[in-house]
Design a protein that fits this description.
Blueprint (H helix, E strand, L loop, with lengths): L13 H28 L5 E6 L5 E7 L4 E6 L11 E5 L11 E6 L6 E6 L2 E5 L4 E3 L2 E3 L5 E4 L7
Parallel strand pairs: 3-10
Antiparallel strand pairs: 1-2, 1-4, 2-3, 5-6, 6-7, 7-8, 8-9
Length: 154
């Protein structure tokens, strides 16, 4: 019997396989990250205008265009040190400084997220499903206004 000629050793191509796997992993990572980031920010942030009149009486104009929310919150019995104030704050990322009041908590992981503030002694929670003022829920009413009186303070 004659022997078959030896089969030449084939190059394994380990580096080529690793490079292909690395490129596929990178493409998958970029696609997944982009999709998650888009889902996180697609609705946009809360837009709150901090306003005070000439006497220093504060009010908020709360808006979230993607959810069609627009509501006014006024504090006629209170005053802030800055009269004639009109400052818009968009809560895209962690915000600690407010034109008046104190930021208690902000969850901006998936926008619009949740915002909890203490303004003029009142606790205000802004959520996509409802507005909570001093632990009382107020459903969103387009163009509505909520008047917060002194007696409701906590």
């Amino acid at each position: 019997m004659s022997e078959l000629p030896p089969i030449p050793a084939r190059k394994d191509g380990l580096l080529r396989h690793l490079a292909i796997a690395a490129v596929l992993a990178l493409v998958f990572y970029i696609a997944a990250f982009s999709w998650i980031e888009h889902r996180r920010a697609v609705k946009g942030p809360w837009e709150i205008a901090f306003v005070s009149d000439a006497a220093g009486r504060p009010s908020l104009q709360i808006a979230q265009p993607a959810l069609q929310i627009s509501e006014r919150l006024s504090f006629p019995d209170d005053q802030v040190p800055r009269p004639n104030l009109a400052e818009l704050v968009k809560f895209r990322e962690a915000t600690t400084n407010l034109p008046f009041g104190e930021m208690l908590m902000q969850d901006a992981l998936y926008l619009p997220g949740t915002i909890t503030m203490r303004l003029c002694g009142h606790q205000i929670e802004v959520l996509p499903r409802t507005l909570i003022v001093d632990k009382t829920e107020h459903p969103w009413k387009p163009g509505g206004e909520i008047v917060v009186r002194e007696a409701a303070k906590q």
